[in-house]
Amino acid sequence: MIEFFINRPKFAIVVSIIMTLAGVLTFMNMPVSLYPSVAPPQVQITAFYPGADHNTIRDTVASVLEQEVNGVERMLYIDSKSSNDGSYLSRISFEIGTDPDLAQTLVQNRVNKAMSKLPVEVKQLGVTVAKVSPSMLLTINLFSPDGSYDGLFLSNYMSLNLRDSLARVNGIGELKIIGEKNYSVRVWIDNEVMAGMGINELDVTAAIASQNTTISAGKIGENPAPQGQVFQYTIKTRGRLKSIADFENIVVRAEPDGSLVRIKDFARVELGAEKYNSMSKLGDLESPLMIAYLAPGANSLQVAKDLHAEMEIISQGFPDDIEYEIAYDSTLFIKTSMAEVYDTLFEALALVVIITFLFLQNIRATLIPAIAIPVSLVATFVVMQMFGMDINTITMFGLILAIGVVVDAAIVVIENVERIMHEEHLPPKEATSKAMKEVTAPLIASALVLMAVFVPVSLAPGMVGILYKQFGVTIVASTIISTVVALSLTPALCAIMLKPSALPTKGPLGWFNAFINKMMGGYGATVGMLSRHILITLILFGALMAYIAYLGTNLPGGFIPEEDKGNFIVDISLPEASTLDRTITEVDSLTNQMKQIPGVKSIVTANGFSMIKGALATNAAMLIVTLDDWEERQTDELSQASIMAQTTQIMQGNREIKSLVMSTPAIPGLGATSGVTMILEDRLGRSTESLGPVYMQLAGELMQRPEIAVAFSTYTANVPQLELNIDYEQAMLLGLEPAAINTAIGSLFGKRYVNDYTRFGKNYQVNIMSDAKYRNDESDLESLYVRSKTGEMVKFSSFAKFETAIGSDVSARFNLYNSTQIIVVPAPGFSSGEAIAAINEVAEGLPDGYAHEWTGQTYQEVKTSGGMMQLFLLAVLVTYLFLVAQYESWLTPFAIMLCVPIGLLGSMLFVTLMSGTLNLYVQIGLVLMIGMACRNAILIVEFAKVLREEKGLSVIGAAVEAAKLRMRAVLMTAMAFILGVTPLILASGAGAASRNTMGHAVWGGMVSATFLGCIFVPVFFVMFQFIREKLGSKTETADVADKARVAEQQRQSG
């Protein structure tokens, strides 16, 4: 078949052109993302219980729903938050690969079964089940530069004019407005005036419910009708009230004298906000903040592009003095990072071509791999699409590293053709034919070795398996295609393009050749010496193995390196029970200081919201800090890490607050923040407050560990509260019904939802609540009344009183246990793996009944950390078995496989020197080194085997001759690979940490496998060939000896 391409070069060229065109067309239509979809699918349950505190929600909503949902098929874990603002939010995480739609359906079915057990108020407002992603795509701020519009108007303008349009953008999972102030008809009751009229809140509720309603009045003349009925009329009624004046004029009671008591007689009615517990700002301007979350499986770049386009269209209809800004866009990092990766790819390609020319020293010869490389790389996109893959960081890293692999095949062919042309003086076509007979088997073997390495690890389950598969398919596909090209296009081009020529002996290239020849002479002598002193070789190899074990034991574990993403988040908590106004004042002071930090571009503030709690809290705030572009931040002082450190100093300067400065997670969808995320659980069902002492002890011990810089949690059991103690016996003596008392409490101290008001085509809540002057402090209990059975208005203070208390403001549960989340930030110089190990050690001392678990990114890190060694050993085993089948020998493959630990030595040593960790990129690099080290060794062993078994050279002679014969080709391919990886090591800007990490592992390993491995491989061949012949059959040994004698006689006679 190879002869066919040599004789018909145009056919080979056409095949390659078609492959390239197919690859280009595929590339143009492939989606782009930062990482493949590896985040566990999540389903969110939300409910609302107006006026309820977190304990009530936990006991009546959380426990009911979670007891039913727990254990749903393919569930990983379930966590929830019940808050004092009446909200309940639960997220169920599923195994990677679960269909999000199926997960949502499974959860919905379980929730439906629990609905009958929920409080009426919760069922009235509804329970929502939706598939979600915690991946924050971008933020949109709406503001009025000149202050023409207030926050209430802006919030509702955003809700009415932005949210509905943006929700229709394909790929949007959720649009959450922080600082949302939905319109609501607020009925503010003057309690003393109302009590003087003998009216209570139930009267008001009933009046509103009965007069602000829709009626299905029917029709006149509808069938069946009397004979001769010729018309049919629909009866219309007023329906819901249309204006605030209508609500003010609702009749509550008709007096005996014919006068009417209306709501406006004892209450103030306005179109206000449904909630007043949060407020967002952009800079110094009040600005509602909309956070767009990505739908599971959606492509972030495309969705963000569509959102930007939709906002441009919507903004054209904005009134004067309303503008918008997208201050945070997560895809900016993705686009910049991928652009950097593309640059790295082209830099690697250029360096590989240069090093190829340096060794071949022939323009014609250099053009052949320069043509073969793009064909192999571009055609790989077709295979990637066949496997359902996209263009992401992992696949692009695979292509960058594949440059050195694909050029390897072309160089082996070209170098061997030129050698034969030079040594045997054959014309190009005949030299190509003869060269292909020698290198076809090693080329195929080398390609199959990489397949043998990556196929087993690509079958690993979960997130690691997906990432290995993405990288492995890219490498294997490019390698197979490059082998096909090396067996078709490359020999065809060699036959028509190469011309006999001698290597220069003068000038820079002549000096380079002299150096290589001298090095090859020294290399051959070293191999010969070590081959005759195998014991010394084994001692040296043993020392290297011991050092590898030392490095492997002391190299810290990790997951994904921290990147400069150009943004970070600050979570702030003020003293418990702080009002929203106080929070705004303190946070404004902090942001004003942060604006002075060089490199800070903008700060979005969400007052009243805690990202860590995942809930609204008046004493909390979240800051989204966006930095200048990476091109403007080239120095260490302007790096994200430096700016985060300066921000931390500012936060620590304010003793009134607790804060955590954190970056977004390395892989979108794996939690809301970076860092190590653990869950402290109470497994004996004690109160939420009982976690307090245990948490404080655990956090204190964690902070004593050198591996840990910060152990942060928003948990507190010291929130000042008022406990209303009701003497029900006294109340009943006063003629009060307990049900009436309980109903009155919800209306007087909290808002009571009555029904809805329709405006702008949407429904808004109608809520009644005591006016602010009756809710200032506990003494206002004197102004609150409840009506007795006899109609008398009885003061609350006559049967109830407030007592001060402390407690928590949020009830968190994890897998049905009361819990609190703790975010741990590793200390500088320590990895996440070391922090996890330290936490495990400290957690061993937890009191009985308490335990810890992991969530988010840390859950995946812990889950995958134990399987790396098994996957690695499996890859080594499969590679060895393949080589056994290839060489029909159990011993010869050891000469190749023993080069693997030498490559790993270089990888781990260089990673250690660069203060790296054994993270996911390093692990992928180590797996790649199995194949690359074997490829180098195969070229030497294959030729040594032929020289020994077919040419009859002595074992040592065959090893030395093969080493010298293939050294230039090995050195050429290795240097091409090493220089191709060098741009990864030198990378800077967005995504540089990942590129650096991958580069360190592969660059160091390849240097070691080349310059140390190539010394040991021939010696290993000698050792195992001696053993093989010693243990082999007499016939086989005699044949080899006969060939050796014939070869020796020919040399003597020659």
UniProtKB/TrEMBL annotation:
<keyword id="KW-0997">Cell inner membrane</keyword>
<dbReference type="GO" id="GO:0042910">
    <property type="term" value="F:xenobiotic transmembrane transporter activity"/>
</dbReference>
<feature type="transmembrane region" description="Helical">
    <location>
        <begin position="341"/>
        <end position="360"/>
    </location>
</feature>
<dbReference type="InterPro" id="IPR004764">
    <property type="entry name" value="MdtF-like"/>
</dbReference>
<comment type="similarity">
    <text>Belongs to the resistance-nodulation-cell division (RND) (TC 2.A.6) family.</text>
</comment>
<feature type="transmembrane region" description="Helical">
    <location>
        <begin position="1002"/>
        <end position="1024"/>
    </location>
</feature>
<feature type="transmembrane region" description="Helical">
    <location>
        <begin position="471"/>
        <end position="498"/>
    </location>
</feature>
<feature type="transmembrane region" description="Helical">
    <location>
        <begin position="12"/>
        <end position="32"/>
    </location>
</feature>
<feature type="transmembrane region" description="Helical">
    <location>
        <begin position="969"/>
        <end position="990"/>
    </location>
</feature>
<dbReference type="InterPro" id="IPR027463">
    <property type="entry name" value="AcrB_DN_DC_subdom"/>
</dbReference>
<dbReference type="InterPro" id="IPR001036">
    <property type="entry name" value="Acrflvin-R"/>
</dbReference>
<keyword id="KW-1133">Transmembrane helix</keyword>
<keyword id="KW-0813">Transport</keyword>
<keyword id="KW-0472">Membrane</keyword>
<keyword id="KW-0812">Transmembrane</keyword>
<dbReference type="Pfam" id="PF00873">
    <property type="entry name" value="ACR_tran"/>
</dbReference>
<keyword id="KW-1003">Cell membrane</keyword>
<protein>
    <recommendedName>
        <fullName>Efflux pump membrane transporter</fullName>
    </recommendedName>
</protein>
<feature type="transmembrane region" description="Helical">
    <location>
        <begin position="920"/>
        <end position="941"/>
    </location>
</feature>
<feature type="transmembrane region" description="Helical">
    <location>
        <begin position="534"/>
        <end position="552"/>
    </location>
</feature>
<dbReference type="GO" id="GO:0015562">
    <property type="term" value="F:efflux transmembrane transporter activity"/>
</dbReference>
<dbReference type="GO" id="GO:0005886">
    <property type="term" value="C:plasma membrane"/>
</dbReference>
<feature type="transmembrane region" description="Helical">
    <location>
        <begin position="439"/>
        <end position="459"/>
    </location>
</feature>
<feature type="transmembrane region" description="Helical">
    <location>
        <begin position="867"/>
        <end position="887"/>
    </location>
</feature>
<feature type="transmembrane region" description="Helical">
    <location>
        <begin position="894"/>
        <end position="914"/>
    </location>
</feature>
<dbReference type="GO" id="GO:0009636">
    <property type="term" value="P:response to toxic substance"/>
</dbReference>
<feature type="transmembrane region" description="Helical">
    <location>
        <begin position="394"/>
        <end position="414"/>
    </location>
</feature>
<feature type="transmembrane region" description="Helical">
    <location>
        <begin position="367"/>
        <end position="388"/>
    </location>
</feature>
